[in-house]
Amino acid sequence: MAQNPPSAPLLFDRALLLRRQRRAATLGPVNFLLDRVVEDMNDRLAAVMRDFQAAADIWTPGEGLQAGLRQRLPLLNPIAPPDSGAEVLPLANASLDLALSALAFQFVNDLPGVLAQIGHALKPDGLLLAAMIGGDTLTELRQSFAAAEAECEGGVSPRVAPFADLRDVGSLLQRAGLALPVTDVDRVVVRYDNAFALMQDLRRMGATNMLFERRRIPTRRATLLKMAQVYAERFADADGRIRATFDVIWLSAWAPHESQPKPLRPGSAKASLEEAVKKGKT
């Protein structure tokens, strides 16, 4: 079983993340993003003409993914996040036909290490299909808090997690030794009455601040009110409701197999670019 390198930086307090996800479950979870991802994952898997026997759901919060895919994948095995916060997957080498994950990888400290472990766990020509929050997610909230803290507290503290962008994720798939990587973004813009309604939804998603470098004292009321004011001034529509951006990054890749298409060797093309340009001008 692959082990994480000990030097991976710790950005996220994963033990705190689990506690907040459990709290969200008791509050009544807000699942509109997860429900959207589950529906999309069903559609994407339907386009793959293959039967998957050994499949694993890696760290998806709740049971929505397993319930949504039960008909297609009756033997989908859930892999629960470890309570200790360690990012080691209990998977044997070449044991999976399919690895899935929904809205979990954005809170991984060592994403390259986790992707490498999945690569080892996949059988040749096995598929990884996952969705994670990334890109410009919550950019409005980030900017509003930064402006409020700069005015009210004389400095800015980390509140919204740093998110990977599309190019980063594609590179990480290749770095993990996976083949035929594909990434794309599904941008979801949600409207709220005010910033506090958005923050309530984030709490019920179990997605509030769990950065190790977070400020450990409660946010001042004046800062919160200023944040809400800035948010309304900069990111409200004509009807007064505010916008919140969520970018869902989709990633897929395959464990290498000899049947997969290979890139041409440099210099092996039978026609030069110069010749193609000349023909296009005639």
Structural class: alpha/beta
What is the helix content? 25-40%
Q: Strands across the major sheet, in which order?
A: 2-1-3-4-6-5
Provide the CATH architecture: 3-Layer(aba) Sandwich
Query: Which CATH first-tier class would you pick?
Result: Alpha Beta
Mean pLDDT: 85
Order of helices and strands: HHEHEEHEHHEHHEH
**Global geometry:** elongated
Instruction: Give the N-to-C terminal Cα separation.
Output: 59 Å
List the quaternary state of the chains: single chain
State the major sheet. 6 strands, mixed
- Radius of gyration using CA atoms only: 22 Å
What is the strand and helix layout of this fold?
Blueprint: H1 14-27, H2 32-46, E1 55-58, H3 64-68, E2 76-79, E3 96-102, H4 111-121, E4 122-134, H5 139-152, H6 166-175, E5 179-192, H7 195-204, H8 221-235, E6 242-254, H9 273-281
Parallel strand pairs: 1-2, 1-3, 3-4
Antiparallel strand pairs: 4-6, 5-6
